Amino acid sequence: MKKRMAMRTGTIAWLVFLFALCAHAQFSGPGAVQSSSAFSIPQAQVIQAEALNKMLQKGGAAKPLVLQVGSHVLFAQAHIPGSEYAGAGSQPEGLQTLQQRVSSLSRKATIVLYCGCCPWNRCPNVGPAFAKLREMGFTNVKVLYLADNFGTDWVGKGYAVEKGR
Amino acid sequence: MAQMNGTERSTAACRPWRKNKSAPRMGRPASVAHRACLLRFFALPALLIAIGVAAGSAQETAPSLLHKKAPEFSLTDLQGRPVDLKAYRGKVVLLNFWATWCAPCQLEMPRFVSWQEQYAARGLQIVGISMDDDPALVRSLSTRLKLNYPVAMGDEKLGELYGGILGLPVTYLIGRDGEVDAEFRGETDLNAMEEQLKALLDSK
């Protein structure tokens, strides 16, 4: 009887473990998303929060230009220190603002785009903004991967923020 | 049946890294004892890791407003009418932060329209706060979705009052006494939300 109980507990535990792993992979990996504008961004161009934070702390010449391409209201509440609001990537006017902001920069400049308005696979802004910069000839563009939103995946992880427009 | 003292049990009972060469213990065939030992050895760590992984995926950021007075605000809706949270005291308020660029928000809103119609007589008032930058887009989507409840434009001050609206949708259920009864961040099970709403409507 005890043997059976132990076997059942073990099997259930492994099932729970596998389920949790699958759920975690589904919500944490950019590669897991199949149908979204953010999905059009090559995995090599996706940067994780920890890596970006390290780049920003290091400073110097390696410091990228960080542009938020989502909501201005969300940006005003909290944004990555030193980042700029560059228009919503889902709107033609937003893309125009982005174009104007970067037009004078070297096409080799390191630019990091982020939004975090919605879960990665639902974000309407980063995909078009990334495509615009590629179309303009920028070769060193990264997009910050925020699985759920800026609140959970940047602020909630304790990385620094600034307020204001 | 042979008895084992406590020391023997703890040291000899379970060593899954060893091949099961020893003689059967306590009347069990060696392979079964070894298998049960393996299960015991891995079951607890697996459960702990599973719980840790699940908790990690469900991180929340904003400080909760649960069971606190809902922060008051006074705005004007898209039709120019006042939207004052205090004026809804005595009603159950569903306060929904949304935006036109938020796809999950747009999945929710048709349900909110039907709830406003279905539960108005029981004292429900839905209030939409758009976190968009451009009211023209909000007006056009509100018309297309036939929203039957007031929608006002929010801003960063209102967002901060509600603990930071740094991702959408965010919805609060506010009781007749003005206290926050439930808080939903991100994509939500709307059936569960409706159940909580109905329970709140039933309470006096």
Distance between the termini of chain B: 64 Å
What's the rounded overall pLDDT mean of chain B? 80
Low-confidence parts of chain B lasting 5 or more residues at pLDDT below 50? 1-14, 19-29, 44-61
Shape of chain A: globular
Question: What is the radius of gyration of chain B computed over CA atoms, rounded to a whole number of angstroms?
Answer: 27 Å
| Helix/sheet category of chain B | alpha/beta
Provide the helix percentage of chain B: 25-40%
Report the biggest beta sheet of chain B as strand number plus sense, adding barrel if it closes.
5 strands, mixed
Radius of gyration of chain A: 19 Å
Query: From the helix content, strand content and strand pairing of chain A, which structural class follows?
Result: alpha/beta
End-to-end separation of chain A: 66 Å
Instruction: Report the order of strands and helices of chain B.
Output: HHEEEHEHEHEEH
Proportion of beta-strand residues of chain A: 5-15%
Quantity of strands of chain B, as a count: 7
Cross-sheet strand order for the largest sheet of chain A: 1-5-4-2-3
- Write the H/E string of chain A, N to C: HEHEHEHEHEH
Question: Assembly state here?
Answer: heterodimer
- Mean pLDDT figure of chain A: 84
